[in-house]
Amino acid sequence: MSAAPEDRAQAEGRNSEDSLLEEDDIEDAGETVTLDHARPLDRTNRPALVLDRVSMTYKVPSTREEVADNLPWYKKAVYGLVRRQPRVSVRALRELSIVVGEGESLGIVGRNGSGKSTLSKVISGKLMPTTGEVWSSGTPMLMGVNAALVPAISGRQNIILGCLALGMSRAEIDERLPEIEESTGLDTAIHLPIDTYSSGMSARLRFAIATSRNPEVLVIDEALNVGDARFRERSQERMKELRDQAGCVVLVSHSRKTIENSCSRVLWLDNGFPLADGDPDEVLEGYARYNFLLAKQRLKEAEEHVNSFRTSYRNVTVQRT
Ligand SMILES: Nc1ncnc2c1ncn2[C@@H]1O[C@H](COP(=O)(O)OP(=O)(O)OP(=O)(O)O)[C@@H](O)[C@H]1O
Fold first, then answer.
1. Same structural domain, 43 and 98
2. Interval 102-147: pLDDT, tens
């Protein structure tokens, strides 16, 4: 284990603007995982990624009048003086501890605003968690739909730039360039400026750049949902290769098919809470039923359904040796 962002003090103020589930309802007891390289884990392979009591609370300005009304007089005065809106805490991630083993691919599902992107940013180090620590066996790489590409230059030049940004030497890039170009499947379009590309073509390029280095921990946020059947097949093959090379993949997606085809395990988040973590068929089935009940406005049944998952979920306990 190498990377360990520092523990940060608990954020002040714990009032989320809307919360479906209460924190006290999450049980803390559960499996214990020991961070010791010499001893392999029972349940997983060696850990590639460990999240230890990670949570994330954003502080954001709010125009909601009750927020301002409920402030003590001195805070009202301060906000009035600096003409700022009062801030509220949005709890994007409640306390979460998970271990992802080498060779595993973890899918993350959940409704809009459930904390998936926040989690992917925390894992990849783009965002410092409010509490807790993230440990990984290598530097995690986040590949998102918005990964930066330079529009005016060709696909090939973007590959070179992207690989330089990933820390590859020019000689290494020259050696691997034909293989990376081939993996995009873009053929002669690789020589055209990428502002002429379709979104699927750009997605292929981003995927090829991000996976060119065999990162030990690859975090993919939605990027596989675009592209045609051939691209999806290629990307699944590549993800399998990455997993086989003892890395781990974390994939955020709204597409059940993408998760089904690519993941060996699925984490379901709801309003920042982990509801289930396990077999893809089981978790995806539960999530699909929840969405079905919500869509049919069968809210009581939906709540009972979600509660049955909530009570069966166990956070792991991470111990250091
Ligand atoms: N930069 C930010 N500042 C303040 N609040 C944020 C920020 N990013 C996300 N949030 C809030 O955190 C919560 C979780 O958002 P997040 O984007 O992680 O959810 P998500 O599951 O990825 O959603 P979606 O499926 O819609 O992409 C939401 O309530 C959102 O409003």
1. yes
2. 888 899 999 999 999 999 999 989 899 999 999 998 888 887 655 5
Are 61 and 135 in the same domain? Answer: yes
Going from the Cα of 127 to the center of ligand 1, the distance in angstroms, rounded, reads: 12
Quickly tell me which residue has 């995009």 as its tokens: 184
Q: Are residues 183 and 258 in the same domain?
A: no
By residue range, what is the domain housing residue 63? 23-140+215-320
pLDDT in tens, 257-291: 878 888 889 999 999 999 999 999 999 999 999 99
Q: Which residues contact 294 (CB under 8 A, 6 or more apart)?
A: 302
Residues lining ligand 1, Cβ inside 6 A = 58, 60, 90, 92, 110, 112-118
Closest alpha carbon to 213 in 153, 138, 276, 270:
138
Q: 192 C-alpha vs ligand 1 centroid, how far in Å?
A: 35
| CB-based contacts of 107, cutoff 8 Å, min separation 6 | 251, 252, 253, 259, 262, 263, 265, 266, 267, 280
Alpha carbon of 258 to ligand 1 centroid (Å): 21
Q: How many structural domains are present in the chain? A: 2
Q: Are residues 235 and 89 in the same domain?
A: yes
Nearest ligand 1 atom, CA 56: 12
Residue having the nearest C-alpha atom to atom 25 of ligand 1: 112
**What's the gap in Å between 179 CA and the centre of ligand 1?**
36
Same domain flag for 184 and 285: no
CATH of the domain at 125: 3.40.50.300
Q: Is residue 52 part of a domain?
A: yes
**Do 207 and 251 share a structural domain?**
no
Do 158 and 170 lie in a common domain? yes
- pLDDT over 80 (residue 183): yes
Nearest CA to ligand 1 atom 2: 58
- Whether 7 maps to a domain, the answer reads no
Whether 134 contacts 123, CB under 8 Å: yes
pLDDT in tens, 55-65: 999 988 777 66
- The rounded Å distance from CA 51 to ligand 1 centre is 19
